[in-house]
């Protein structure tokens, strides 16, 4: 599974999770099968709703891990078959080590 994760900085597996998807400047793409990690910067369009989500969709992700996400971005992912997960994890290493414990995101903008 290729999972996108909003991060605060590019710091490998120690990168901290950005609390809200829409505020993230950087994203990690983690492949749970190959254990490969890629860190990218996503340019945001001016007043661009869901532009990070659209950019990530173009990368062929299967899922996204978030602590908080807006309705429009979440809906865009769900309409494109991308699973939206959450959990009480604060860095990439914790997410990677707990892939089997991720929960479906069912909350409002802020879950954790």
Question: Can I get a quick summary?
Answer:
With 112 residues, this protein is of the alpha/beta class. The protein has helices at residues 51-58, 71-79, 92-97, and strands at residues 2-7, 26-31, 37-41, 63-65, 83-86, 103-104. It has a six-stranded mixed beta sheet.
Task: Report the major sheet.
Answer: 6 strands, mixed
Oligomer: single chain
Low-confidence segments, given as residue ranges, are: none
- Count of helices? 3
Tell me the strand order in the biggest sheet.
Answer: 3-2-1-4-5-6
Distance between the termini: 23 Å
Find the count of extended strands (DSSP E, 2+ residues): 6
Q: Beta-sheet strand percentage? A: 15-25%
- Compute the CA-based radius of gyration: 12 Å
Helix/sheet category: alpha/beta
Global outline: globular
What is the helix fraction of residues, given as a range? 10-25%
Topology as a string of helices (H) and strands (E): EEEHEHEHE
**Global mean pLDDT:** 91
Written overview of the protein:
- The protein is α/β, with parallel strands linked by helices and 112 residues long.
- Helix content is 21%, strand content 23%.
- It has helices at 51-58, 71-79, 92-97; strands at residues 2-7, 26-31, 37-41, 63-65, 83-86, 103-104.
- It has a six-stranded mixed sheet with strand order 3-2-1-4-5-6.
- α1 (51-58) packs parallel to α2 (71-79).
- It starts with a strand and ends in an 8-residue tail after the last strand.
């Amino acid at each position: 599974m290729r999972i996108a994760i909003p991060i605060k900085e590019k710091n490998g597996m120690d990168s901290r999770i950005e609390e809200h998807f829409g505020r993230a400047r950087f994203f990690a793409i983690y492949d749970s099968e190959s254990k490969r990690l890629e860190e990218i910067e996503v340019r945001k369009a001016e007043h661009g709703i869901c532009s990070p989500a659209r950019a990530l969709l173009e990368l062929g992700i299967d899922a996204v891990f978030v602590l908080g996400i807006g309705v429009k971005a979440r809906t865009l992912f769900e309409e494109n078959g991308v699973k939206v997960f959450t959990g009480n994890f604060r860095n990439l290493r914790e997410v990677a080590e707990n892939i089997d414990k991720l929960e479906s995101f069912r909350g409002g903008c802020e879950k954790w």
